[in-house]
Design goal:
- It contains nine helices and eleven strands.
- The chain has a six-stranded mixed sheet, sandwiched between helices.
- By secondary structure, it is α/β, with parallel strands linked by helices.
- The protein starts with 6 loop residues before the first helix and ends with a helix.
- The chain has helices at residues 7-10, 26-30, 32-37, 70-78, 89-95, 140-148, 183-187, 207-212, 214-229, and strands at 18-23, 55-57, 63-68, 84-88, 100-105, 111-118, 132-137, 153-158, 174-179, 190-199, 201-206.
- The chain has two domains: 7-109 and 200-229, Periplasmic binding protein-like II (D-Maltodextrin-Binding Protein, domain 2); 111-199, Periplasmic binding protein-like II (D-Maltodextrin-Binding Protein, domain 2), CATH 3.40.190.
Length: 230
C-alpha cells in the first residue's frame, strides 16, 4: 500500500501576514488612536521603547506591525519588506521612491521642513545674490532641490542629528531641519527663516502589492480612510 501523503501536504498554504511599518518616536505615539479606529490592535509592547522586539503581532492574524526608524519606513515599503506603512511627508520628499504610493494624509505628526540660521546673522545678506551656500541637514536631497530652484548651489554637510550645533561650530551657514515648535532652534540661538514645506504623516503602500493584492490592500486603505472620518 502506498503511504499516504503527510497531512501538511494536503492542507492549503497559509498566506503570510501583511506587514505595516510604523515609525519609532512621536508619530508612533500619535497614531495609536488612529490604529484602533482602523481596527489594528498590536501587542501591548509595540509602543514600549525599551522593548527589544521589532515585529509585533496584532489581533488580526493577517497583519503584523514592525517598528523601525522614521527614515526607514519608506525604504521597507519601497522594497516590499512591508506592504503598508505610516511615515512623514518629509521622508517621501527626501527619497521620492517611485515604488511607494501615498493614498491618505493622516493629519498627524504636524510639523514643517524649514531653513534656519543664527539669529545674529539672519537678514544680514540677500539670499537672491548667493551663488552657493553651505547647509547642514539630514535632508540632502530636499536641501539641494530647494536651493537649486533659486539658482543656488548647496554644499551639504550631511548630519543625522544635532543640526542646530552646525552654524555655531563653523560647519555650515544654514541648516535645513524638521521643526515642530521651534523651541530647539531658539535654545540654540537660531531662527527659522523659511518654510520649505508643511509636513504631515501619510499612509503609504507598496505599488506592486497594490497591483497583486488589490482587494486586500484596498480594504486596508478603506479602513484607514474610514478611521479618519470618525
Amino acid at each position: 500500500m502506498t503511504a499516504p501523503y503527510p497531512a501538511t501536504a494536503l492542507e492549503p498554504e497559509v498566506a503570510a501576514p501583511l506587514i505595516l511599518a510604523l515609525p519609532k518616536g512621536r508619530i508612533l505615539a500619535e497614531c495609536g488612536q488612529l490604529l484602533l479606529r482602523a481596527g489594528v490592535a498590536p501587542a501591548s509592547d509595540y509602543t514600549d521603547e525599551e522593548s527589544r522586539r521589532l515585529r509585533f503581532p496584532t489581533d488580526d492574524p493577517a497583519l503584523d506591525v514592525v517598528r523601525v526608524r522614521p527614515f526607514d519606513v519608506a525604504t521597507f515599503v519601497a522594497f516590499g519588506a512591508a506592504q503598508l506603512g505610516i511615515c512623514g511627508a518629509d521622508v517621501l520628499m527626501e527619497f521620492d521612491y517611485p515604488e511607494v504610493y501615498a493614498p491618505l494624509d493622516l493629519g498627524i505628526g504636524v510639523c514643517r521642513v524649514s531653513v534656519a540660521e543664527p539669529a545674529g546673522t539672519a537678514g544680514s545678506d540677500d539670499p537672491s545674490r548667493w551663488s552657493r551656500v553651505q547647509v547642514a541637514t539630514k535632508y540632502p536631497n530636499i536641501a539641494r532641490r530647494h536651493f537649486a530652484s533659486r539658482g543656488v548651489h548647496a554644499d551639504v554637510v550631511h548630519l543625522s542629528g544635532a543640526m542646530e550645533l552646525a552654524p555655531g561650530l563653523g560647519l555650515s551657514r544654514l541648516i535645513v531641519d524638521l521643526v515642530q515648535t521651534g523651541s530647539t532652534l531658539r535654545a540654540n540661538g537660531l531662527v527659522e527663516t523659511e518654510v520649505i514645506a508643511p509636513i504631515t504623516s501619510r499612509l503609504i503602500v507598496n505599488r506592486t502589492a497594490l497591483k497583486t493584492q488589490p482587494e486586500t490592500i484596498g480594504t486596508w486603505i478603506a479602513r484607514f480612510r474610514a478611521a479618519l472620518g470618525q
